[in-house]
Design brief:
About 70% of the residues lie in helices and about 5% in strands. It contains 15 helices and 6 strands. Strand 2 and strand 3 form a beta hairpin. The longest helix has about 60 residues.
Length: about 500
C-alpha cells in the first residue's frame, strides 16, 4: 500500500513540477478538438412508421397465404435499399443538386445507403416498418438538411407503396405474358408430336405404343386364348354328353294307332295273345292262323320302310340342344384359331421391326411428357391470372402510414455537449500524460525512497527547497497565472457549452 502511495506521490509531483507544460498541451488539444467539433455539420433525422396488414380470406382460398405475403414483404425490404431506388431518391431531393457525373452519383448513393434504415416489427400477418433517414450534407444549410431528411423518408415510403402495389401487378402481367408465349410453343410441339404419333400408327397399326404395348397386347391375346380354350373344352364335353344321351334314346315311339308294318305286327301279336289267353292251344286253327300272321308281319316290319312310329319328343329335344352346343363349339374353335393367328402376327411384327417398336415407344413417351407439361403450364397460368385479378380488384394488403415523416426541428447529431466535455477530458489527460512522460525521460526522483530503490544505497537525508522572499512572491504570481490559465480553459468550455445550447433552437 505504501509503495502505491509513493508511486502516486511521484506521479503527482512529476505532473505538478511541469504543470505549465501540462497546461499548454491541454490548451492545444482542447482548442484543436473544439475546432474540429465546431466544423462538424449538424445532421437531421426524420422517421416514419408504416403499418402493413396481411389478412384476406379470398386470397387464402387461391393460395395467397400470409406466409407468402411475409416472403413478399421480406423480399421487398431487401430490394428497397437497392441502388436503383436510392438513385431515384437522390435525383428527387436536394442531394442531387450538385451531382453531375456517374461517379458522383455512385458515391452519393453509397453514402445515402448508410444514412437510411428500414426496420420491421410486429406480429405475423401484420408488420410495422420504421423508416429513418438522416441528412448532414456540408453543402447544405441546417434548414435544407432538415427538409432533405424528410424528403428522403417520404421517398422511401413512396417506393415502398409503388413496389408493393404497382410493382407486383406489373410482375403478374409480365409473368402471364411469358407463360402465354410458353403455352403457344408447347401447343405447337404437342401438335407436331400428335401428328407423328398418328402417322406412325397409320403405318404400323400393330406397333402403336412401342414394345411395352406389344407385350401387353400379346399378354392380352394369350390370356384370352386360355379362356377360349377352357370354354371350348367345356363345350366339347357337353356335346359328347348330348351324343351319349341321343344314342340311348329311341327316335320314335311304336303304338297301334301309329300305322305301318310295325303297327300291324303289334295288332297281330295282340290278337295272338288274346287267343292264348282264352286257353286255346297252339294246335288250334285260330292260334295257328294268328301265328302265321305274326310271322308275316314280322318279316314286313324288318324290311325297308317298316318304321312308321311316332317321333320321340325326348329325342327331338336332345337333337335341338346338340345343334346349339355344336354351334357354340364351332364359334369357340373359330375364335381360338383367330387368336392364334393374331399372336403369330404380333410376334412376327415384333421380331421383324424392333427399331419401329423402339420408335413407337419414343413417340409415345415424348407425347406424354409434352402433354403433362402443357397441362401443368396451363393450370399455373390460370392460377396466376386469378391471383392477379384478386390482387388488382381485391387487394389483400392493407397499407397505412401511421406516422408520416416530418421536418425535424432540432439536429439529431452530433452531440456537441458530450463531445466538448470529452475533448476537455482528453486535453487534460494529454497534458498530464505529457508532463509525466517528460518527467520520466529526464530521470528525476520525486522521493528519497525512489532514489534508494534506484541506486540500492541508503539515503542519509533530504534537503528542503529554500526560497527567498522574492522567489516566494514570484512563485505566487506564477501560481496565480497557472490557476487563471486553468480557469480560462474551464471558462472557455462553459462558454462553448452555453453557446451550443443557445444555438440548438428550432430550425428556421
Amino acid at each position: 500500500m505504501n509503495q502505491m502511495l509513493e508511486e502516486l506521490r511521484a506521479i503527482l509531483w512529476a505532473i505538478w513540477n511541469r504543470r505549465w507544460l501540462a497546461l499548454g498541451v491541454s490548451w492545444g488539444v482542447c482548442a484543436l478538438g473544439w475546432l474540429v467539433i465546431a466544423l462538424i455539420p449538424n445532421s437531421y433525422e426524420s422517421s416514419a412508421r408504416v403499418f402493413v396488414q396481411l389478412d384476406d380470406m379470398l386470397a387464402d382460398q387461391i393460395g395467397i397465404t400470409a406466409a407468402a405475403r411475409d416472403k413478399d414483404i421480406a423480399r421487398l425490404q431487401q430490394t428497397l435499399m437497392s441502388a436503383v431506388n436510392l438513385e431515384k431518391i437522390v435525383r428527387s431531393t436536394a442531394l442531387g443538386k450538385h451531382v453531375t457525373t456517374p461517379a458522383q452519383m455512385s458515391a452519393e448513393v453509397t453514402a445515402l445507403a448508410k444514412r437510411i434504415t428500414v426496420l420491421a416489427e410486429g406480429d405475423p400477418g401484420s408488420h410495422i416498418f420504421k423508416v429513418t433517414a438522416t441528412s448532414g450534407e456540408r453543402g447544405l444549410s441546417d434548414a435544407e438538411n432538415a427538409q432533405t431528411a424528410r424528403d428522403v423518408a417520404q421517398g422511401m415510403i413512396d417506393i415502398f407503396k409503388e413496389q408493393n402495389f404497382g410493382g407486383s401487378r406489373g410482375e403478374v402481367r409480365d409473368t402471364i405474358a411469358f407463360m402465354d408465349q410458353q403455352l403457344a410453343q408447347r401447343s405447337k410441339q404437342l401438335e407436331d408430336a400428335e401428328q407423328r404419333r398418328l402417322a406412325f400408327e397409320a403405318k404400323y397399326p400393330d406397333l402403336a405404343g412401342g414394345t411395352d404395348a406389344i407385350i401387353a397386347q400379346l399378354n392380352g391375346y394369350r390370356a384370352e386364348l386360355r379362356n377360349v380354350g377352357a370354354d371350348l373344352a367345356a363345350g366339347q364335353a357337353a356335346l359328347a354328353a348330348i351324343d351319349g344321351q341321343m344314342a340311348s334314346t329311341a327316335k320314335t315311339l311304336t303304338t297301334p294307332e301309329s300305322g305301318g308294318p310295325k303297327a300291324a305286327l303289334a295288332v297281330a301279336r295282340a290278337n295272338l295273345a288274346a287267343l292264348q289267353a282264352r286257353g286255346l292251344t297252339d294246335s288250334h286253327p285260330d292260334v295257328i292262323a294268328a301265328q302265321k300272321q305274326v310271322a308275316a308281319m314280322t318279316r314286313a316290319a324288318q324290311g325297308p320302310g317298316g318304321d312308321y312310329g311316332t317321333p320321340n319328343p325326348a329325342y327331338t329335344s336332345l337333337q335341338g340342344l346338340r345343334v346349339e352346343r355344336q354351334a357354340t363349339v364351332d364359334a369357340l374353335t373359330s375364335r381360338a384359331a383367330a387368336l392364334r393367328q393374331q399372336i403369330v402376327s404380333v410376334e412376327a411384327n415384333e421380331a421383324q421391326a424392333p427399331a419401329a417398336a423402339a420408335e413407337a415407344k419414343q413417340i409415345s413417351r415424348d407425347y406424354d411428357v409434352l402433354k403433362t407439361q402443357y397441362d401443368k403450364l396451363l393450370a399455373d397460368r390460370e392460377e396466376l391470372r386469378l391471383r392477379g385479378q384478386v390482387e388488382t380488384e381485391h387487394n389483400s394488403v392493407k397499407f397505412d402510414v401511421v406516422d408520416p415523416p416530418g421536418v425535424p426541428r432540432k439536429p439529431a447529431s452530433p452531440n456537441r455537449p458530450l463531445l466538448l466535455f470529452g475533448v476537455l477530458i482528453v486535453g487534460i489527460a494529454a497534458g498530464c500524460g505529457t508532463a509525466f512522460a517528460v518527467g520520466r525521460i529526464r530521470s528525476t526522483f520525486a522521493t528519497a525512497a525512489k532514489l534508494e530503490t534506484a541506486f540500492d544505497l541508503p539515503v542519509i537525508g533530504t534537503i528542503s527547497l529554500a526560497m527567498t522572499d522574492a522567489s516566494r512572491a514570484f512563485d505566487r504570481r506564477r501560481r496565480k497565472l497557472f490557476y487563471a490559465g486553468s480557469a480560462g480553459l474551464g471558462g472557455v468550455f462553459m462558454l462553448m457549452l452555453a453557446a451550443e445550447f443557445l444555438q440548438r433552437g428550432p430550425v428556421a
